[in-house]
Amino acid sequence: MVKRKYYLFSFICLIMICFTSLYLFTMQNDDKTVNANTPLHPKPFMNFPAQIRPSEYPSAPQSLTATFGNGQIVLNWMTPTSDGGYSITNYYIYRGTTSGGETLLTTVGVTLTYTNTGLTNGQTYYYEVSAYNSYYYEGLKSNEATATPMTVPGAPQSLMALSESNQINLTWGAPVNNGGSVITNYKVYVGTTSGGEEYSP
Asked: Which candidate in 30, 33, 138, 175 could, as Cys together with 154 as Cys, close a disulfide (CB 3.0–4.6 Å)?
């Protein structure tokens, strides 16, 4: 009878140990499947001062730049000076329409460039980038970079020419599309044959 109780107690202890080990293993490996298309769940940075910040955190990506295009902005940056002792696996791209108002836009893999398409010409965008390493830590954000996508303006509308004594008066309407920026000047082209107009400052 005593042996049966001993065996039963030992069996219960073994079951408890197995469940405890399984729980700890699950907790340690939670949220660890990471790729460029999977939302990441970084450990909170906690805003540690630099002198006591855990060494496993990557430093900030360097020299972030933003270059405008037609409805798009191209970001380029350099790798962090420190990866925290673990290889960089992803970068977080943050975007906002006000300085300091950036929120997470997307994640990319191990690359140093990103093209943000489908943007509104004339709208200013602000960006920051942070690195994420294989220890599942997100590091500091980069410098803030900004750009305003734009393109060439549309053609002036309803051009009319009216001759008067020894001069010709031209009138026209503003382009329907300013390309994302304020119209500041117009160029007038003149020629003596159709299609032979040239610009003469």
From this structure: 175
Q: What is the pLDDT of residues 128-166, one digit of tens each?
A: 999 999 988 899 999 999 999 998 888 989 899 898 888
Tokens 């997470």, located at residue: 104
101 and 54 housed in the same domain: yes
Question: Residue 59: what residue type?
Answer: S
Domain boundary among 147, 171, 190: 147
The dihedrals phi and psi of 4, each to the nearest 5 degrees, come to: -65, -45
Number of structural domains in the chain: 3
Question: How far, in Å, CA of 81 to CA of 192, rounded?
Answer: 63
Helix (H) or strand (E) holding 130: strand 125-133
Model-level pTM?
A: 0.69
Closest CA to 69 of 123, 143, 121: 121
Considering the domain architecture, whether residues 71 and 107 belong to the same structural domain is answered as yes
Residue 43 CB contacts under 8 Å (≥ 6 apart), including other chains: 136, 137, 138
- CA torsion sign, 67 to 69 to 75 to 77? negative
Decide if 119 is inside a domain. yes
Answer yes or no: are the C-beta atoms of 44 and 63 closer than 8 Å.
no
54 confidence band (pLDDT: 50, 70, 90): low
Cα end-to-end span (Å), the chain: 111
